[in-house]
Amino acid sequence: MSQVRKGNRILTIEPHRVDDYVARGYDHIDEESGEVIKKGDPVSLADFKREYSSLKAQVKEKDARIVELEAQNAELTTKVEELEAGAKTPAKASKAKKDTAEE
């Protein structure tokens, strides 16, 4: 097991997760001596706020696109229904013409 530290918090984690914690700002430390093996990337509150704002803007864009696509889908569904209704009506009319012609 490996240990990571951030501030006064020390966590014991699995060795394959060390890089994830280092990316979050934790320092990888030696279990016996407590010395830093790998310094963590500093992550500030401003970084989180900037990322949050960026993600929030992306969500708004995606929501607008969803509304746009739903409207387009409703329009196309209406057109398909109209075309299907139109296709059924002439078929009946032509069949009726054939029946009267045979008589």
How would you portray this structure in words?
By secondary structure, this protein is of the alpha+beta class. The protein has 2 domains: 2-38, no CATH class; 44-103. It has helices at residues 18-23, 45-102; strands spanning 2-6, 9-13, 27-29, 36-38. The chain has a 4-stranded antiparallel β-sheet. It is elongated.
Secondary-structure blueprint of this entry?
Blueprint: E1 2-6, E2 9-13, H1 18-23, E3 27-29, E4 36-38, H2 45-102
Antiparallel strand pairs: 1-2, 1-3, 3-4
User: Order of strands across the biggest sheet?
Assistant: 2-1-3-4
Kindly state the percentage of residues in helix: 55-70%
Could you state the order of secondary-structure elements as H and E?
Answer: EEHEEH
Strand % is: 15-25%
Mean pLDDT: 86
Sheet having the most strands: 4 strands, antiparallel
Identify low-pLDDT runs: none
Distance between the termini: 92 Å
Report Rg. 33 Å
Per DSSP, the total helix count is 2
**Number of discrete domains:** 2
Instruction: Give the tally of β-strands.
Output: 4
Form type: elongated
Secondary structure class reads alpha+beta
Give a quick summary of the entry.
It is built from 2 helices and 4 strands; from the N terminus they run ββαββα.
Task: Note the main attributes of this structure.
103 residues; alpha+beta; 2 domains; four-stranded antiparallel beta sheet; 62% helix; 16% strand
